[in-house]
Amino acid sequence: MSENEASPAPKKQENNDLVPDDGFVAKWINYFHLALNPPMTFEEALQRKQARDKREEAADCAKCEKHRDFLLAYSPTVRFIRQNINKGSFNPSYGIHLCANHLQARSQVEDTIAHEMVHAYDYLRFNVDLDNNLRHAACSEIRAGTLSGECRWFREFWTNGQYKFTQHFQDCIRRRAVLSVAGRPGCKDDVQAAKVVNEVWDSCFSDTRPFDEVYR
Fold first, then answer.
1. Is 156 exposed, middle or buried (0-12, 13-18, 19+ CB in 10 A)?
2. Which of 25, 81, 139, 149 could pair covalently with 204 via S-S, beta carbons 3.0-4.6 A apart?
3. Do residues 77 and 216 lie in contact, with contact meaning Cβ atoms separated by under 8 Å?
4. For this structure, is 44 an active site residue?
5. Average pLDDT in the 15-28 region?
């Protein structure tokens, strides 16, 4: 090769050896493959996730529906909240939506159903305006985070990499409530969301209805 010829650009190594990661063994194979090779770009990761969701849509929905039916029949938390909702449904048009591709474990489905059923309880029993009143929305998010179990330490440790021990429970609830309020059309930014959450925090964090105390 002459000195004037440009050397060919090194070919980027692609993650073509990945296998469908829907089984226990396959997930570990992919884990080590990704750890030992160049990381995927955001676009590659998104394409892989979309392909996985499309490929496993029917299986994800079937598993999620199976978890849902089990929890409606046997989960003490879900059954208790359901018994305390004495009229109507949370939204007459579609009820509670579960994103099956994001809810792989029964415990995740239970936390999500419990969270949304707290919103349903608030909506039906106290006539709160979750769409247009930020204070109502913040209060319901605080209560849902407190009562659903989604902020227990092991859940946060394994799913979100949160390692704090002191004030972990309160910090988790506050963080989730701010994120939810900030995403509503009537909220200007995360600064306003944090302000609203702080304004209603004391009364809403201590409100455990329909439970006597924090159950999970």
1. buried
2. 139
3. yes
4. no
5. 60
